[in-house]
Amino acid sequence: MRVTLEKSSGVGGAMLLPGRKQLFCLLWAIILLSQWVHGQHCIWYGECGNSTKVQEKKLNCNYTGPPKPLPDIEGQDLLQELCPGLVYGENEVCCDTQQLRTLKNNIQIPLQYLSRCPACFFNFMTLFCELTCSPRQSDFVNSTQFSPFNNSQTNVEEVSYYITQTFANAMYNACKDVQAPSSNVKALSLLCGRDASECTPNNWISYMFDINNGQVPFAIDPDFTNVPPGITPMNNVTFNCTQSLDDGSGPCSCQDCSGACGPTPVAPPFLPPWTILGMDAMTLIMWCSYIAFLIIFFGAVLGAWCYRRRMVTSEYAPILDSNQPHSLNSDGTDFVGDATCCETMGERFENCLRVLFSTWGSLCVRHPLTVILTSVVLVSICSAGLSYLRITTNPVELWSSPNSRARQEKDYFDQHFGPFFRTEQLIITTSVNASFTFSPISGPDIYFSSILNISLLHQVLDLQTEITNLAAEYKGETVTFKDICISPLAPYNDNCTILSMLNYFQNSHEVLNHNVSDEFYTYFDYHTHFLYCVSSPTALDDTSPLHDPCMGTFGGPVFPWLALGGYEGTAYNNATALVITFPVTNYLNDTEKLGKALAWEKVFIEFVKNYSNPNLTISFSTERSIEDEIDRESNSDVTTIVISYVIMFVYISLALGHINSFRTLLVDSKISLGIAGILIVLSSVACSLGIFSYFGIPLTLIVIEVIPFLVLAVGVDNIFIIVQTYQRDERMPEEELHQQIGRILGEVAPSMFLSSFSETVAFFLGALSSMPAVRTFSLFAGLAVFIDFLLQISCFVSLLGLDIKRQESNRPDILCCVKLSDRQQENSEGCLFLFFKKIYAPFILKDWVRPLVVAVFVGMLSFSIAVVNKVEIGLDQRLSMPDDSYVLDYFGNLSEYLHTGAPVYFVVEDGHDYKTSEGQNALCGGVGCNSNSLVQQIYTASLLNNYTKISNVPSSWLDDYFDWVKPQSSCCRYFNNTGAFCNASVEDKTCVHCRPLTPSGKQRPNGTEFMHFLPMFLSDNPNIKCGKGGHAAYSTAVDLKDDNTDVGATYFMSYHTILKTSSDFTDALKMARELTDNITQAIGPQNKDYSVFPYSIFYVFYEQYLTIVYDTAFNLGVSLAAIFVVSTVLLGFELWSAVLVSLTIAMILVNMFGVMWLWDISLNAVSLVNLVMCCGISVEFCSHIVRAFSVSTRSSRAKRAEEALAHMGSSVFSGITLTKFGGILILALSKSQIFQIFYFRMYLSIVLLGAAHGLIFLPVLLSYAGPSVNKAKVMAAHNRYVNTERERLIY
């Protein structure tokens, strides 16, 4: 054919043309012919000798003849499969069947990663098909170096491949966004020899053709610009990733092609702070409101003062004669008809309480031994429950409710996929200045930080090796790291997972020292290997003559952002910290195996604590560290707490006594009674703990630390009220001791009952909280307070009667067997009472002082309201550790050095149908998947990582499974004779592909076929021929059920961004839930009870902060409502009195928020418990004063307030304020930061604010707006005391 053409074109044509024209045409024809002949020219054909670079690979045979047709069916099928663009005519190509086999084997890894984007893979295959088989091969490939093979053939050792920049750019652009789901990185990071961000069209192609990459048997020099004459660079047709292919393949998905995504998503703007005129809105509003209040209030006070100057009136005008001052000496019947129904009912209820408590008090004094013995027996029975005491130190149990969403999701995850692994982690830095500059053979010098100095790396490797060799003893059995570590490829590879940069060097000193050098240069060493591995951590060969792998010894990659810290961007060589993580298997219900892990962790902690190396600075943490340190913190604070309570106990014991003279010191002191009162308080706490322990309710550290303080405040206040009321009382003529104490108890017990019952109800209602710490505290506190009240009105009253008899017998305290000479017994008013009565109360209630008090307290309230929304939410985990804890250094380095957050799992609950195309499209992220699929939505969220806190695209087992099962891939094969799975690394002719290379075989598997191959995928270990095996990455991600015939729950894993503060963690949880809510709605599980939810290890701890504001408002609101209702009833249905009590307590609580803002106390479960306790203690400061005011019969509100403050103020001040003040100051010495902040600061604020409001503001408020006198109570008091000695004593 060619000869015929030559003749017809040359000779025949020349005969028709004369002269010079004939010669010119002949030359032109020869040129065209030579170009045409050159286009049919090959540069190689077939395979000859072995490569000297890669021994297991062959070199192509030099051949400069025309292309040849493929001789066999196999070759033609391979050409159709690999290079369909070259299939035409007789399939004349420049490669034989063996070369096509080699090509297929060589493109397996790229196929598995790039074929998820058809356009990308088509362009990629065009590059290699044109090089390997194109009949126009010599147009763009030129052989430049040869070697002999045998007498008749030579090997091609080196070629130049001319490629247009247009083609290179198009191929790169189509592939640059393609993801590698199992690695959460882009595919080019695995195929370019460097991070995808540093990959360019030219260096990608150059890397693939580099003879040093361990895959190319001969040198291929790609040239994009220097094209010699006679060469036509390869510039075949390419497809954009948004285009469909001619074979019907669709465009690439958005995840793999940013051009297919449409507009880049934009995060919604953050809400700006609320401002008015450039100022904080709340601050401005409260300033204006406060100024307006002052103007109105002082105007009203001034007007009232002027009015009183003109006309003096009494609030008792309706019930008293205007010309007669009020006195109980009238017959009390002149206004009997004026009492309202509520007043009468209130007086009767009050009288019932008085009679009841008087009778009970008299009984306790008359039968003290019976009462005391009964109390001891009951307390012993209740306290015996302490033998069943169970203290919860597990942070999950402490902070997360079993019914909370995060806890239920955690349990679901643990049950279906196993619990999250236990983490033992080191962060290693150095103070040594050992930084240096590495000078590679080509390119600029590269700076290396000190921690990457090889001498330090050897020292770190020694440390790592020593840790892996640690052994612990557990029940007589030796436990090593290998016994508890995670081995993802076991049993084929039982090496432990160690996420360490030293795994790039196979954890070997020898590999770390590898180098290739001569007397002039170092060509390859640990510097080059490190730089290669941080760019391509999944590489099995670093392309150096040493061929060292980057993959860890455990069979998986070590990503640099997990093993290095303290660098910017991807400048890993600038890292200032090494992060070494030892994952340890966690166990859900296997206490034996869990015990082994705990034992090894204990040895690990002791070893690292005692490890000493002047060149290395190590911070570390283990899974048990936080719990251990919380336990140690509690033990270390025992001394501080004991000293605090001892100071309070000593004060109580001494302050109860009323010393008349030094001579009667021993007789008048009440040390034994004070100790008895303290024992009663502690007994009530023990009873509460014991009773709930009977029911199996676990105790928390907060209960142990807070409840004694609370019950001591309530109990001591009541003790002081009873004792000091007796000390100020005069026994009536012919009145016996039991009658006197009964009468006194009848007067004060209703007030004690009011405060105690209010607190009990408030605390029990607080148990409705969903927060375990608050709920447990409320239960234990409510019962402890009520038991304390019962013991005080029974056991303590009996002890008081005995002590009074001892005192009246003139026997010294403690040494009661000794009897001193008789003396006259008389009660007198104490100094503190006289101070309150004569000086303090009159001063506070002066006409000019009262407005100032109101102005100051309303100002405090206004300030607190202005800042209440500025109180930080959360708990810095560093505060939960002792000051000297090793974990504090770890927390600091964690936020400073780490470059990635915690893993986050997007869990699809059991119920989704994976066997249908619709079900698959709702989740996957490849070609044909829904634009709002699970993977696609997570990918979109990762583009807005500053907003969503999702840093990576998810690892998708479903997409990797589809790539794995493709018939073009060598991954999915089985033995034809047995049907058993055949790994890609197995060379056996009986292994056949799972699916045929037909149009239907290229589609995704559905139905039973989907389930048939899925278990094979999940058991396949990745290898150099198949990087998509799912055993290491996904063996726990898919929960197979019904004997592997269906898919249950599955997860898709990503990572959070760096989270440093409580608000970061809370926002991450919130955004992840919003994302999964959208995914659940998108996949549309109609009439199905499954959903998608996010899970990360920290969710159970931070979920509380999503609702902490609501929980705070609910708990405090319920407590205030309970106090209001109880106060209304027990104050004799005086609604307004209950309103004033609740208002004052509410002011104390709001002011507590102001203090929290000023003193940097955040709102969390601990501070919420303290706020609930504050609500209870505030009742003590307020209710006694208000009740004393309500029963007072003085002639004006100011006088009634003065009397209430004088009689109850001294007891409240000495019983709560002074008792607590000394004990609280000791808490400032605690080593625990959480004690210093949440106990010392908050307790001090509670006591000071409670005392200020109860003893300053509340009396003033009552003098202005207190309820009118209860007419029925006045009449009852008249009838009770008229014509008795008691009338003279009172008035």
TrEMBL record:
Keywords linked to the UniProt accession: Cholesterol metabolism, Disulfide bond, Glycoprotein, Lipid metabolism, Lipid transport, Membrane, Signal, Steroid metabolism, Sterol metabolism, Transmembrane, Transmembrane helix, Transport
GO BP annotation list: cholesterol homeostasis; cholesterol metabolic process; cholesterol transport; intestinal cholesterol absorption
GO molecular function: cholesterol binding; lipid transporter activity
Reactions accelerated catalytically: cholesterol(in) = cholesterol(out)
SSD domain sequence ranges: 637-802
Annotated family: Belongs to the patched family.
Protein name: SSD domain-containing protein
Source organism of the structure: Cirrhinus molitorella
